[in-house]
Amino acid sequence: MKYLHTMIRVKDLEKALDFFVNKLGLIETRRHEVPEGKFTLIFLATEKGEPEVELTWNWDQKDDYTSGRNFGHLAYAVDDIHKICSELMDKGVEILRPPRDGRMAFIKSPDGISVELLQKGESLTPIEPWISMENTGSW
What is the model's pLDDT at position 111? Predict the structure, then answer.
């Protein structure tokens, strides 16, 4: 497993970028605008190829995020998302968002911290039981 990024939600993108880039010295490694979802993802790191902070800016967010709501999730790249999800289920871990697409899954820590698992490289071919498995909770 390889640690990828931590996601936090930001209310004011310009203030967040000023803090992380101008004050903290991180660099923008990539940006993804999603007009249909009305959000922007900006990834920052100390240098290219290093673990990132993902700033998520929801364009329509009016209210401040409550403590804990601004923190999103930890993310890890895995060699075989089907195998690791099966192993986690065997160990009693609930798969909140199964890897139906062969690419992404979500689980939660005992303290409620969301953990995203992402398939390294290309998505795997979707297989059972993941294809027909429902989401069991929010992530």
Answer: 61
